Amino acid sequence: MAIMQKKVTVTLPQDLIERLNEAVPSRKRSLFITEAIREHLDLIEQINVLDVSAGSWSLDHHPEMKDEAAIDTWLQGLRQNWG
User: What residues have CB less than 8 Å from 45, skipping those under 6 apart?
Assistant: First the structure.
C-alpha cells in the first residue's frame, strides 16, 4: 500500500540548506527530511508522555524499589518465575 504524499514548501536558513546539499544527494533529500521530521516528532511525543506521567510512580506504591537490595530481591523473585 503506497503512502500518500503531498508536496509542501518550507523556508530554511541558508546555512542549513548548504549543509543539507553537502551531506545528502539531491534525489534523497525528501526521504532525509521526512526521516528527520519523523524522528524529531517521535522525540517530542516521548517527552510529552514523560511530562504527563511525571509523578505517577512513587515509593509508596512500590516499596520493592526503595533501594538496591530491595530491587535485587525483587529481580530474583521475578527471574525465578521465568524458569
Answer: none
